Amino acid sequence: MSTPDAAVTIEEDGPLLLIGVNRPEAHNLWNVEVIQAVSRAYRRLGDSAHLRVGVVFGHGRLFTAGLDLASVAPLLTDGDPTAVFPENGYDPWDFFGEPCPKPIVVAIHGRCNTLGIELALASQLAIASEDARFAQLEVARGIFPLGGATFRLPLRLGAAGMRYLLSAEMFDAATALRLGLVSEVVAANRHLERAVELARVIAANAPLGVQAALASARAAERGARNAARQVLLDNRAIFASADAAEGISAFLERRAPVFQGK
Questions:
Q1: Which residues are the active-site residues?
Q2: DSSP class per residue in the chain
């Protein structure tokens, strides 16, 4: 088990593995430490015969404000996200690496930005508190989403998904439910309780059948996923552009960016 002050807490609860992002003082931004710890937790879930379902949540006031650019950006200068993944982990976003073969339920509250949305899209169930707010902000920071939003948002949410991908606008939990981003919206502070309830329902089913059904569902989108991944790799120079540098600087300096298209 993890220590209470770890950046990611890990706790086994019968057949469930509870994975909690624990950087509340930093708005639960995912830095390299968090990404690698979650990736390894997914591997632990996948490799342990007694564990059947993972539940991902955030400690504190919100799920996640997104990516910790100060920590991760230096590793993304070539636009290759695999640089941040450990060799002994699974890709939580099922985009650049192999995913965990077992189901993941995400419990969302407060803010859910960028990679948080992509994590929900890559997971099998997402439960949102009624206070949750969502935003896919990358284009407002001079870069583009690296965790699958470029194809999953339009695929799953249709025209609205393309709007939020390109506009970086915020939307609420009711909208997320109506569009199909989340499975259920619950009262404030019930998101984790409900996620655990549904995870137990899944865990009570035949594990081999659940894993085979999940693998088949993923196979249906593999062609689109691989094509989208290649397009992003072909455009990795964007991460070295002046606009990307300006977007990151503006974010860190808490000011509006001025983009020049170069």
A1: 118, 138
A2: ---TTSSEEEEEETTEEEEEE--GGGTT-B-HHHHHHHHHHHHHHHH-TT--EEEEEESTT-SB--B-HHHHGGG-TTS-GGGGS-TTS--TTSSSSPPPSS-EEEEE-SEEETHHHHHHHHSSEEEEETT-EEE--GGGGTS---SSHHHHHHHHHTHHHHHHHHH--EEEHHHHHHHTSSSEEE-TT-HHHHHHHHHHHHHTS-HHHHHHHHHHHHHHHHHHHHHHHHHHHHTGGGGGSHHHHHHHHHHHHTS-------
